[in-house]
Specification:
Layout (H helix, E strand, L loop, with lengths): L9 E7 L3 E8 L5 E8 L11 E2 L1 H21 L7 E8 L5 E4 L9 E2 L7 H10 L9 H4 L8 H11 L1 H8 L3 E4 L1 H9 L9 E3 H4 L14 H7 L8 E3 L2 E6 L9 E7 H8 L8 E5 L3 E8 L10 E6 L8 E8 L3 H10 L22 E3 L17 E3 L7 H27 L7 E4 L6 H11 L3 E4 L4 H11 L17 E4 L5 H18 L2 H11 L5 H7 L4 E3 L2 H10 L2
Parallel strand pairs: 1-5, 5-12, 9-10, 13-19, 19-20
Antiparallel strand pairs: 1-2, 2-3, 4-7, 6-8, 11-12, 13-14, 14-16, 15-16, 17-18, 18-22, 20-21
Helix pairs in contact: 1-6, 4-5, 9-13, 11-12
Length: about 550
C-alpha cells in the first residue's frame, strides 16, 4: 500500500454555528476547500422566547466532525499530518457556564437569540444613570440588550441555584462557545486553556472597546466576578494544542466570532469594505479600520479582528438581524408550507402578489430598532393568499431588514459607503433569494462561488499566526464571484420599502398594547379577540400559528 501523498500545508477550521457544527480542511497556498463534515445541533425551547443548547452535544458534534473529516482526508490519499494549525469560529454571545473541576456544564447553553432576560435588561436600564439602554456604549460599544452575554450570565447567577453556588465556591467558568471548545480540546480539567479572543469578548458587554480588557466598571455594573472570565487574546496566535485523537499536538491558533470570521473570509480587510452573512440570523459588518465609529442609528461598534497580540485591532460597525434563515425553517418545520429548501427556487416561476408584508420579530427586532416589544405579524393576507405569497414575504422581510441596516450605515458613514454588498451563508446559495435582495436594497450583490467564508476566515486567522505563518494574506485573492444587479425600478423599490416600514411600525409596542387590552377586555376569549383584529393583519400568537398551519395543510 502506497503512502498518502503530500498535499502541502493544510489548515483545519471548526465552524460551530447555531444550527450546525462543521469541520473543514483548507489548502493554505490556494484557499481551496479540500473536504468537510457537518453535524446538526439541536436547539431546546423550554418556554416561549427561551433558546438553549446542550454544551456537551456541541462538543461531541465538533469532535465527530473532526473525526469524519480526517477520515475523508485519508480516503482522498492525503496525509493528515499536513494539517499544521486549527482555527475556530463560533456562534457569538451564546453563554456556557461549567464546573472547572468536573468539566460538566452547570446549565444548558443560553443561545444568543434567547430573550428570557427581558426583565433583567429593564432592571439594568433603570439602574443606569441616564435610564438609557445606550448608557454603556462609550465603554463597550453595545446597548443594554437581551442579545449580549453579560445579561445572560446575570440571569443564570440570579435564577439557577447550581450556578450561584458554583460562583460562590469559585468553581464556575464562563465562556462563549469558542472558550468552551478550546478549554475542552486542550485538556479540559487537565490544564485546559481558558481563553477567548477579542471579537468574542467584544460581544459580552464586559470588555472595554479601547483597552481590549475586561473592564472593572462593567463588571461592577453587572456584578459579575472576574474570576469566571477567560483571558482575552488576539484573534491570531497559538493558544494551545489539541490533546487527543489524530490531531493530537496540532496548535489551535485562530479564533473569531462567526461574523468576524466571514468578514475575514470575504477578504474585507480594507476600511470601507462590508459583507453580510445569511444564516440563522443575518449580520452585516462594515470595516472601519483602526478607527471606532459610534453609531447614532442603531448599529453596534465591535472588534472586527486583531491579527496578533502586537498588531492593532481593526474595528467594524455591525447591523444584526435576529431572524433570517430561522424564518424559513419556521415555515418548513412549524407550518409545513414546504418540504425542502430547493422548492424555494420554484417561486421564480410562480405568480405572487407582492402585497403581503411579514415582520418576523420572534425575539423582538434587533438593529436598527432594538425593540423587544415588537410582535411578529403578517399584513395584507386575504382569501386569495397562497403558500408562495407567504414564502416570498418571508424572504422579502430578510431583505427589507438588510435595507434598514444599509440606510442606518449611510447615515453614520455617508451615502457613498454603500456601493455593493458581499454576501455569504446558507441563504446566499439560492439565486432567487439573492436577486430579491439586490432588487430591494438597490445595489449590486456579490456572492462568492465558495460561500463557506466563515470557515475560511477562521482558517486564515490560524494560518497567519506567529509561529505558523503559512498563510500569506498578500497572495490570497478573493474567490471568484457572481454579481446580481437590481432589476426593478426605484419607484417600485421605494414603495415596497415604505410599506415595510408601515408594517414594522404596527408591530411595535405589541406587548404594551396587549397588557392594556387584557386589562380592559378580560372577559374576551381568543376567538372574540381574533374577530376584533383587522382582516388584513395576522398576529403571530400561539393561537394564530395553529390556525395558519391548519390553513396551509
Amino acid at each position: 500500500m502506497s503512502a498518502p501523498r503530500r498535499f502541502g500545508p493544510l489548515i483545519g477550521s471548526v465552524d460551530e454555528g447555531t444550527s450546525k457544527a462543521r469541520f473543514f480542511i483548507f489548502a493554505a497556498e490556494t484557499a481551496e476547500m479540500i473536504t468537510y463534515h457537518q453535524v446538526d445541533v439541536k436547539s431546546i425551547h423550554p418556554r416561549e422566547g427561551w433558546v438553549e443548547q446542550n454544551p456537551m452535544e456541541i462538543l461531541h458534534a465538533v469532535k465527530k466532525c473532526m473525526e469524519v473529516t480526517i477520515d475523508n482526508l485519508t480516503q482522498l490519499d492525503i496525509d493528515p499530518s499536513d494539517i499544521l494549525a486549527i482555527g475556530i469560529s463560533n456562534q457569538r454571545e451564546t453563554v456556557v457556564l461549567w464546573d472547572k473541576f468536573t468539566g460538566e456544564p452547570l446549565y444548558n447553553a443560553i443561545v444568543w437569540s434567547d430573550v428570557r432576560n427581558k426583565d433583567t435588561v429593564q432592571q439594568f436600564i433603570a439602574k443606569s444613570k441616564r435610564k438609557c439602554a445606550d448608557y454603556l456604549k462609550p465603554i463597550c460599544g453595545l446597548p443594554i440588550s437581551t442579545y449580549f452575554s453579560a445579561l445572560k450570565i446575570r440571569w443564570l447567577i440570579d435564577n439557577i441555584p447550581e450556578v450561584n453556588k458554583a460562583v460562590i465556591e469559585e468553581r464556575c467558568l464562563f465562556g462563549t462557545v469558542d472558550s468552551w471548545l478550546i478549554w475542552n480540546l486542550t485538556g479540559g480539567v487537565n490544564n485546559g486553556i481558558h481563553i477567548t479572543d477579542v471579537t468574542n469578548a467584544s460581544r459580552t458587554m464586559l470588555m472595554n472597546i479601547d483597552s481590549l480588557k475586561w473592564d472593572p466598571l462593567l463588571l461592577r455594573f453587572f456584578d459579575i466576578p472576574s474570576e469566571i472570565l477567560p483571558k482575552i487574546r488576539s484573534s491570531s496566535e497559538i493558544y494551545g494544542y489539541i490533546v487527543e485523537g489524530l490531531l493530537h499536538g496540532v496548535p489551535i491558533s485562530g479564533c473569531l466570532g462567526d461574523q468576524q470570521a466571514a468578514l475575514v473570509g470575504q477578504m474585507c480587510l480594507k476600511k470601507g469594505q462590508m459583507k453580510n452573512t445569511y444564516g440563522t440570523g443575518s449580520f452585516l459588518l462594515y470595516n472601519t479600520g483602526k478607527a471606532k465609529i459610534w453609531s447614532d442609528n442603531g448599529l453596534l461598534t465591535t472588534v472586527a479582528y486583531q491579527f496578533g497580540p502586537k498588531s492593532p485591532p481593526i474595528y467594524a460597525l455591525e447591523g444584526s438581524i435576529a431572524i433570517a434563515g430561522a424564518a424559513l425553517f419556521w415555515l418548513k418545520d412549524n407550518l409545513n408550507i414546504f418540504e425542502d429548501f430547493s422548492q424555494i427556487s420554484d417561486l421564480s416561476k410562480a405568480k405572487t402578489t407582492n402585497n403581503i408584508y411579514f415582520v418576523p420579530a420572534f425575539c423582538g427586532l434587533y438593529a436598527p430598532y432594538w425593540r423587544t416589544d415588537a410582535c411578529s405579524a403578517m399584513f395584507g393576507m386575504n382569501e386569495n393568499t397562497q403558500k408562495t405569497d407567504i414564502i416570498r414575504a418571508t424572504i422579502e422581510a430578510i431583505c427589507f431588514q438588510t435595507r434598514d441596516i444599509l440606510e442606518a450605515l449611510a447615515k453614520d458613514c455617508g451615502e457613498r459607503c454603500v456601493k455593493k454588498l458581499l454576501i455569504d451563508g446558507g441563504m446566499a446559495c439560492n439565486d432567487y433569494v439573492v436577486q430579491l435582495l439586490a432588487d430591494i436594497i438597490g445595489i449590486p450583490v456579490v456572492r462568492p462561488t465558495m460561500t463557506e467564508t466563515t470557515a475560511l476566515g477562521a482558517a486564515i486567522a490560524a494560518g497567519c499566526a506567529e509561529g505558523i505563518k503559512i498563510w500569506d494574506l498578500n497572495k490570497v485573492q478573493p474567490t471568484p464571484s457572481d454579481t446580481f444587479h437590481p432589476l426593478i425600478s426605484i419607484n417600485e423599490r421605494d414603495t415596497r420599502y415604505y410599506k415595510w416600514k408601515m408594517a414594522v411600525s404596527k408591530s411595535l409596542d405589541w406587548e404594551i398594547r396587549s397588557e392594556i387590552k387584557t386589562k380592559n377586555c378580560t372577559d374576551l376569549n381568543e376567538k372574540k379577540i381574533l374577530r376584533m383584529m383587522p382582516a388584513t393583519v395576522f398576529l403571530m400568537s400561539s393561537f394564530g400559528l395553529m390556525l395558519l398551519a391548519e390553513y396551509f395543510q
